[in-house]
Amino acid sequence: MHPRAGRADGTHSMARAVFALMSPRQRDGLRKPPPNELVSGARLKSPSQPADGHSVPSYDLICIGSGPAGEKAALVAAQFGRRAAIVELAPRPGGAMVNTGTVASKALRETALVASAMRRRPIPGYDAVAPVGLSMQRFMARRTLVQMEEHDRIEGGLESAGVEIVRGRGEVVDANTVRVTRADGSSELLNTQYILIATGSSPARAKGVDFTHPAIVDADGILELESMPRSLAIVGAGVIGSEYASIFAELGVAVTLIEPRSTLMRFLDEEIREILKQGMEDVGIRLLFGRATSSVEGLQNGQARTTLVDGETMDTDCVLWSLGRNGNSRGLGLETVGVVPDERGNIKVDSHYRTACATIFAAGDVIGFPALASTSMEQGRIAACHMFGIPFLTRLADTVPMGIYTIPAIGSVGLTEEEAVAGARDIVVGRAHYRDNARGRMLGDDRGLLKAVFDRKTGALLGVSVVGEDATELVHFGQLAIASGHGIQHLIETCFNYPSLTELYKTAAYDALAASIPYRAAA
Ligand SMILES: Cc1cc2nc3c(=O)[nH]c(=O)nc-3n(C[C@H](O)[C@H](O)[C@H](O)COP(=O)(O)OP(=O)(O)OC[C@H]3O[C@@H](n4cnc5c(N)ncnc54)[C@H](O)[C@@H]3O)c2cc1C
């Protein structure tokens, strides 16, 4: 076995550890190039017999797309001794995760929180005023810096693992051939044993909305705004719309959040959702729920007008259209290999992330829900493991957490109270308020709440929902407890740091205990 030298993301040292645990037969299987018939019925082309009869470079894996799914799949393959390449059409790697999504929006959130810190946590007797009139350029500066650092990290990791990055637009020619078309129109064919489609997703755009008007943007376009809007209407209170509402409101922008459904993010615990709504209203966000939008039009004065179905209109400096995303599966030549995406562009895969074509896998946003950077990375790694028979990571964890970077933030894992009740589970709920926690008080978070759902009989933790400071981090402790079958007893026996927000878990466990054992009444 020859995991290549490299730091990448820790997969390298894990590769060595996994290799050490393998049987001699398994090791042997990894040392040898895999047989041509890995998949029943799928005779793989030999690299020496390329599709067009010319000599073309050959690989074990070509990932189309360098977002988290493509990056991690290529790294796993390379670190387990395979020749992997990534075809990427953008100038720098990272996909939506780095360039237009996760990292970009989260870096902006951190900047917004710095700008508002003195307002949120005032120092008694000290009159420091938060900076007003922050320019868009200054607001975006830190995000750009973090993105550049991420580009370097990804490129450095891929390089040291021996993954080639091929610049250009990738397209499937047949089950083992990818065509790469460069910006100058020239193209080359690459031969490969496996292909991973990791092309991500794009914001869904409504017909009749003029996205060429400078005041009308989607989640990609909002990062290109040249000046800070004074007012912003956001159509769609999903995760992305709600996060941007919080970020811009934190800077003093007058934000209206419009949602056709009766509330925001229905998959969240109701109590947690209510606290988020209160936090949003506190910072001045106007919430219009159960209000559908009939049109958005650009005005000559540079603003945009949003008209609701009930007739209300509002003119704002900017409108962010944030109603869903579609998988990037068009123009990939998938029809030539019998892979047919659904009407939202999503590709169907099996539990190994294999498509209808035996040598073509797909992972990340292009396969649809849950469409997160976190799950996309895992899916990419898992797909690569199945391709090459690597017993390293073969399935996605049962307990996948959700982090929503609104202000306040939300973390959620496992069952919500409503889901447990709907599933007729016999549960007991423990609550812990930030205001009753010393660290919560120091942070000035009066509204924060951690809610833990336990099985009433066994005391096992079934789910955690948190709203407040560090909620997206706190949730991981609950995730581990759920995965390892721990619950009330374990939380009560564990000694936590003081003062810490993690201690909220112990408070919630005692609260659940009090609710499940009416010891006060018995005493
Ligand atoms: C505003 C926003 C905030 C988000 N926040 C979070 C968050 O907090 N946490 C979280 O987990 N997730 C978050 N996400 C989701 C996350 O960004 C995506 O789930 C993740 O990036 C998907 O990864 P991917 O590898 O499938 O695709 P992507 O990251 O989209 O990468 C796809 C890559 O493929 C390339 N490509 C496309 N077609 C071709 C082609 N034909 N040839 C060559 N290259 C091609 C693209 O240029 C791109 O680089 C957010 C998304 C958005 C938009």
Describe this structure in words.
The chain has 523 residues and is an alpha/beta fold. It has 3 domains: 31-203 and 327-388, FAD/NAD(P)-binding domain; 216-323, FAD/NAD(P)-binding domain (3-Layer(bba) Sandwich); 408-516, 2-Layer Sandwich (Enolase-like, domain 1). It has 15 helices and 22 strands. It has helices at 11-21, 24-31, 68-79, 95-98, 102-120, 136-161, 239-250, 270-282, 373-388, 417-422, 438-442, 471-483, 488-493, 504-516, 519-522, and strands at residues 58-64, 84-88, 164-167, 169-174, 177-181, 187-197, 201-203, 216-217, 231-235, 254-259, 286-289, 293-298, 304-308, 313-316, 318-321, 325-327, 360-362, 402-404, 410-414, 427-433, 449-455, 461-467. The strands form 5 sheets. Strands 1, 2, 3, 4, 5, 6 and 17 form a 7-stranded mixed beta sheet that branches. A 5-stranded parallel beta sheet has the order 8-15-9-10-11, with helices on one face. A 5-stranded antiparallel beta sheet has the order 18-19-22-21-20, with helices on both faces. Strand 4 and strand 5 form a beta hairpin. The longest helix has 26 residues, at 136-161. Mean pLDDT is 89; it is low at 1-12, 29-53 and 519-523. The site of flavin-adenine dinucleotide has 38 residues, from helix 3, strand 2, helix 4, helix 5 and strand 4.
